[in-house]
Prior knowledge:
Radius of gyration: 33 Å
Helix content: over 70%
Structural class: mainly alpha
Order of helices and strands: HHHHHHH
Strand content: under 5%
Number of domains: 2
Shape: elongated
Number of strands: 0
Number of helices: 7
Largest sheet: none
Amino acid sequence: MNNLESFINNNREEFDSEEMKNGWEKIESKLKQKKDKQNISRWWLAAAASITIFVSGVIYYNNSTNKSDNTVIQQPVDGNSKELTEDDPSYKFQMDQFAQLIALKQNELKQNQKKQPVLYNQFLKDNNQLDSSYTYLKSKLSANPNKEILLDAIIQNLQLKLDLLNRQLQIIKQSKNKKTDNEKNI
Length: 186
C-alpha cells in the first residue's frame, strides 16, 4: 500500500489533468443552478400561499358581512352604466337591458318576502354575493387599461344574477304549486 501511495504522490501532476478540473467546475455550476431553482420555487410557493390566505380572508369577510345585511336586495346596475360604458354604446345597451330585467325580477321576488322569509333570506345571500363581485369589478374598471375584458365580466355577472333570480322565482313557483297540490289532496 505504501508503494501505491508513494507512486501517486510522486506522479500527482499526471493525475490532476485539466479535464478533471473542468469536470469539477461543471458539477459545481450545476449544483449552484439547482440551488437557485429551489430558491425560486420556494418564492413561488410562498407567493401562492399568500394569495390563498388573502383570498380566503376576503371570502370569509364577505360571508360574515352578508349575514348582517339582510335588508333589501341591492340593484347592481344603477343609472351610472353611462360611466362604465362611455367608450362602447353596445355595452351600455346590454347593461341597461339587464338592469331593467333584474329590477323586475327583484320586485317579483320581494313580493314573496313575507310569504316565505327563510327562502327569501337565502336568496338574498346569493344575490349579495353576486352584487359584491359586481362592485369589485366596477371598482377595477377605471384603473384597468383593458376595459373590454372587465366589461365582459360585468355583463357575465349580470347574466348570472338574472339567471339566479329566474331560478329563485321558479323555486318559489314550485313551492306554491306543491302547497296547492297538498291542500287539494287534504
